[in-house]
Amino acid sequence: MTHIDWVILRRVGSRVGLAMAVLFGMLMLVESLDSWRFAYLSALGGAPLAMLGIASAAASWLIKSLALTVLVGTVIGVIDLQSRRELTVIKSSGLSIWRILRAPTLAVLIGGFAVVLIGEGIVTQINRGLSSNQPGDAAAALAPSGGLWLEQNANGERYVIEAAHVIGKGQQLVDVAIFLTDGAQEGRILAPQANLVDGAWYFPTATRYRVELAPEHLTNFSMPTTTTRGDLALKLSSTDDMTFFELAGSLATKVSDPALRSAVATRFLRLLSLPALLVGALFIAFAFTAGYRRASGYGASIIYAIFLGFVVFMITEMADRAGSAGALDPTLAACGPAFVAIVIGLSVLLYKEDGRA
After folding, report:
1. What's the rounded Cα separation, in Å, for the pair 28 and 49?
2. pLDDT tens for residues 115-135?
3. Whether pTM exceeds 0.90
4. Which range marks the domain in which residue 43 is found?
5. DSSP strand E in the chain: where?
């Protein structure tokens, strides 16, 4: 890297870091307003644990809005270069905007992958560990009391299974009740334990109760199911509580529920495409602020750049929700916003570099 690359990196990197620090402080202030959570964590582990909870929650929001933060910080950095006439001198030396963008682009890519592979995993694990100590944070498949409820439909049999306790990420259920709803099978089955095997729930012992019939004791009893171990692991957690590598592992396992697989794929691909989204934000910032101008006013350019940043952020969030719900292909939902951001930035840069603006 040349001295010019270091000058650009120092200016842009320092301003991006400042923008991240300011936003992180604001997010910590917002998270500190949750007095109940702060008091609970303080009682559990003292003030350091409560501060860790606030910081980890703020860091999680910071990662979600990282593209917008990079865009705002880059805009400030490029304007700083312009105000010092450094960017004018750099361009007058014969370097094109593409050569100027080389070092910041590499830095953003490296930083983006570091966040995805390391930073996001650390923050997720901390948040997950703190949430597991808080009452009322049950997963979607869990009842408020902590029990598990699952609707099952396999081989023409429909039933609902309920368990008071879950062991081994759902592979073993304790204090199980099965509610049968179809015709002659109508009734319920109670069992002290149920194990998930390939294509079935296996009960070593169970008792069947039906109307106007005596209780029937069952041994080595099984009920068919399409639920897999991968399905249960996902239903007992949330994709937001899974790291990049855990998401990759879930995709590698058998997941029969298409809605669950869409949610996992969307979250995984969104993290994977984060570096590209950051590059798109960088291009947008340079496109609207790096052009030569005689006047020193940058108000309109800043507004346009930040507006486009918010548009990209909103598109990212809407696409993420659509992909997680299965309404949009996960690849399109996760990678589409990054592609749009890069196309917008490159289009404006090409238009201005062509000499028509």
Report:
1. 14
2. 999 999 999 888 887 765 544
3. no
4. 3-134+261-353
5. 148-154, 157-167, 172-180, 187-197, 200-209, 216-224
